[in-house]
């Protein structure tokens, strides 16, 4: 899809938020639920796939905050899912008066473009996912072996049509031909995002090896989308691991949830 443009330069948090909004729109469109960009935000007026917000703010300007509140009022008038979320990309909104409560806080992250190599000696083989059967195996591992209740009874979270998108790349880490780790990179204009990072504890690596997982995915993402800075958002131990792989926190974000 075409990345929305504005006449002004964007800050690092805005570029990261825009990349995330583009990724949300890409996944929603793959499910036949297209979203809309405008007024410094992205929104979708139908139930999105699991783990995707109905609205993502992009710009940090006051006008964008006012537009977000107006769009939230419009969304509240629609027959929404019982539980829906807003990604406040600059932690700048007070949505409590609108019936929301904070779900979690996180930090946008940024890594300057710099080629790197997949760490040696981890015992894992890394490859880009290219076919539908392998993507189904990837999603099974990503969803904790199919145990994720939020995905129960739903169609695949990541339709195979995404494999044909030149701006999307799925990466899988293998141990003995089993997918035990992975991530997704998506390109939006001048940056590429790294998201959905997971790593099942296997025979070779333990829970303390998260920095090695991130380092491998950084190398793969830079190979797929060379000369582009990498962005994303993380929190807790994943944020620590991302920093060990060369990312720098650049701004706060908050996800709000509303129970209708």
Describe the overall structure:
The chain has 260 residues and is an alpha+beta fold. It folds into two domains: 12-107 and 253-259, no CATH class; 125-250, Aminopeptidase (3-Layer(aba) Sandwich), CATH 3.40.630. Helix content is 27%, strand content 29%. It has five helices and eleven strands. The chain has helices at residues 12-30, 62-76, 132-142, 210-224, 236-244, and strands at residues 36-38, 41-43, 55-57, 83-88, 100-111, 125-128, 168-175, 178-188, 191-199, 230-234, 248-259. It has an eleven-stranded mixed β-sheet with strand order 1-2-3-4-11-5-10-9-8-7-6, with helices on both faces. Helix 4 (210-224) crosses helix 5. The protein starts with 11 loop residues before the first helix and ends with a strand. Mean pLDDT is 91; it is low at 202-207.
Under CATH, the homologous superfamily of the largest domain reads: Gcn5-related N-acetyltransferase (GNAT)
Whole-number mean pLDDT: 91
Oligomeric description of these chains? single chain
- Cα gyration radius (Å): 18 Å
CATH topology of the largest domain: Aminopeptidase
Distance between the termini: 32 Å
Secondary-structure-derived class: alpha+beta
**Major sheet summary line:** 11 strands, mixed
CATH architecture label name of the largest domain: 3-Layer(aba) Sandwich
Question: How many independent structural domains?
Answer: 2
Strand neighbour order, sheet with most strands: 1-2-3-4-11-5-10-9-8-7-6
**Range of strand content:** 25-35%
Structure summary, number of beta strands: 11
Number of helices: 5
The proportion of residues forming helix, as a percent range, comes to 25-40%
């Amino acid at each position: 899809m075409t990345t929305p443009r504005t006449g002004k330069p964007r800050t690092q948090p805005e570029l990261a938020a825009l990349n995330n909004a583009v990724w949300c729109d890409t996944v929603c469109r793959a499910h036949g639920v297209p979203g809309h960009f405008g007024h410094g935000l992205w929104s979708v007026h139908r139930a999105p796939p699991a783990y995707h917000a109905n609205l993502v703010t992009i710009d940090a300007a006051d006008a964008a905050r006012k537009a977000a509140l107006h769009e939230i009022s419009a969304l509240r008038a629609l027959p929404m899912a019982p539980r829906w979320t807003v990604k406040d990309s600059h932690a700048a909104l007070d949505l409590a008066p609108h019936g929301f409560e904070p779900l979690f806080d996180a930090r946008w992250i940024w890594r300057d473009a710099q080629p790197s190599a997949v760490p040696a000696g981890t015992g894992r083989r890394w490859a880009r996912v290219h076919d539908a059967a392998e993507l189904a195996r990837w999603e099974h591992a990503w969803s904790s072996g199919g145990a994720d209740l939020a995905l129960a009874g739903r169609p695949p979270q990541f339709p195979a049509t995404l494999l044909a998108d030149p701006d999307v790349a799925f990466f899988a880490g293998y141990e003995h031909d089993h997918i035990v780790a992975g991530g997704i990179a998506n390109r939006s204009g001048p940056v590429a995002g790294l998201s959905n990072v997971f790593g099942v504890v296997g025979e070779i690596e333990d829970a303390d090896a998260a920095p090695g997982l991130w380092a491998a995915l950084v190398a793969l993402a830079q190979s797929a989308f060379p000369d582009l800075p990498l962005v994303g958002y993380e929190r807790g131990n994943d944020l620590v691991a991302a920093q060990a792989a060369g990312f720098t926190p650049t701004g706060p974000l908050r996800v709000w949830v509303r129970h209708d």
